[in-house]
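[DERIVE STRUCTURE TOKENS]
===
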Amino acid sequence: MPPGSEQDSMQAVFDYIEQQFTRRPGEVGRLFHGRGRCFSGFEDVVIDRLPPLIVIRLFNQIPAEQLDNLVAFLQNIRFTSHPHCWCSTAIAVKTAFRCAGRRMMRMSDGWQ
């Protein structure tokens, strides 16, 4: 893919989150805030770590594949970076916009 593509942007987000994730393992903190407009296509995404939970907040709809890739990455990093700390972590996705007239929240422990 050419530079600046969606795949490059997603990898840049993954690299940034991994850096934040390993900075202070096990502590409450913001892993990602897209509003800084540093990551194209992720302007409406915020990810917080609230052990034992990782919360992804969406302030606008993003493509399902993008969200699934993000969740899969977080599922993988929580086990590979600090398996002793993160084996019971769940990932929650919360929308701050309305879907078909209602808010939605999707929680996962394994994203099945």
